[in-house]
Design goal:
- β9 and β10 form a beta hairpin.
- Helices cover 28% and strands 31% of the residues.
- The chain has an 8-stranded antiparallel beta sheet with strand order 4-3-2-1-5-6-7-8.
- The chain has 4 helices and 17 strands.
């Protein structure tokens, strides 16, 4: 049986999932005043993988705030404003993390037994936390993964656990945790609505200047013509905070078929994203990149203008062709002229032509 430490007893829930499996929530819309607290735990079955055997990392919104791993054995602040926490906070979190480490080592062994695995490299991961929405509502999340695959997740509408893989191993855990004698989901609900949210409010108050700074996005649009179609690109970069809404618009309608990257961090703490769409422009069509962000009073509409793009490309091509033709023509003329001229042999005067006869 998995240790109950995976549920509400992990009071600080502050953990990071290393790149074994990504359980991050994708933000596709702009929420003006929402904040989230997320923790990622990872434990591996054996040393020597290049990863700590156990690690816990916490985030407020997109900022890493705390880190603990089995190599350091200490919970440490990752941003300066976390040093404002009350006396004894870091020692308390270190002791909680050590307890979680022991529980997680037990959990990865339990999972291996369930999957009939006696050795090798295996990983067990958990993401948990809470979110305060801009409308004042509270949501939570509690997701589990094993060996890079989703295993179990908490449904916060019913506060029950749902298997996210078909194997019986996940169903066994879900049935047990949802049973009347345990009701782990209800206990976790109390954690989300009280402990997690109270800590989140405290962290946000300490780090408000950093968390809520506003940096306007820069936007660049371009197009690659391929016959009758055009691949449009909208590069949005240099913005903060992370939440952003980017899409292509045709006239006044959204272009629904598009490709988008994840929101990626820049070295200076800002973010970037690219959204692309393949379209077939017709006369009268007007394509623009729509960008909405916290830093903007009104959304941006950056228009892609194919006429200007085409004129510059055509002008450049024509110029290159003209230069090439002139260069080739001049070279041919030069060769022909040199081929028709023969140097005079001064040893044979009879061969000298009478160049003055028609002077």
């Amino acid at each position: 049986m998995f240790s109950s430490s995976l549920g509400p007893p992990i009071y600080w829930g502050r953990r990071r999932m290393l790149p074994l499996m990504v359980l991050l929530l994708h933000v596709s819309a702009v929420c003006s005043d929402s904040h989230s607290l997320r923790y990622y735990h990872t434990v591996v079955s054996a040393p020597g993988s290049g990863l700590p055997e156990f690690s816990s990392v916490g985030y407020v919104d997109d900022r890493e705030i705390v880190n603990y791993n089995s190599d350091s054995g200490r919970a440490r602040p990752k941003v300066q404003w976390m040093e404002k926490m009350e006396d004894g906070y870091w020692e308390e979190q270190t002791q909680i993390s050590k307890g979680n480490e022991a529980a997680f080592r037990h959990n990865v062994r339990t999972a291996m037994e369930r999957f009939n695995q006696s050795g090798g490299f295996h990983s067990f991961q958990v993401m948990s936390g809470c979110k305060l929405r801009d409308d004042g509502g509270i949501t939570g999340y509690h997701q589990f993964g094993y060996d890079g695959r989703e295993f179990l997740a908490l449904d916060t509408q019913t506060w029950t656990y749902v298997p996210t893989m078909a194997q019986a191993q996940a169903q066994i855990t879900a049935q047990r945790w949802n049973s009347p004698d345990l009701q782990v989901g209800e206990r976790y609900k109390n954690y989300v609505e009280n402990i997690c949210t109270e800590y989140l409010k405290k962290y946000v108050e300490n780090g408000r200047e950093d968390l809520e700074r506003r940096v306007r996005p820069q936007v660049k649009v371009s197009g690659q013509e391929k016959g009758d179609t055009v691949k449009l690109h909208c590069q949005v970069y240099g913005f903060h905070p992370r939440a952003v809404d980017v899409k292509w618009m045709k006239n006044k309608d959204e272009v629904h078929s598009y490709e988008t990257t994840h929101v990626l961090p820049n070295p200076d703490g800002t973010y970037q994203i690219r959204v692309s769409a393949e379209v077939t422009p017709k006369d009268g069509d007007r394509y623009s990149c729509y960008v909405d962000h916290h830093s903007l009073e009104e959304p941006l509409y950056i228009v892609w203008e194919p006429e200007k793009s085409s004129v510059w490309v055509i002008a450049l091509v024509v110029a290159l062709v003209v230069v090439a033709v002139l260069g080739i023509g001049g070279f041919i003329f030069y060769r022909k002229r040199n081929a028709g001229y023969k140097e005079t042999d001064t040893s044979d005067t009879s061969s000298v032509p009478n160049i003055t006869a028609n002077a």
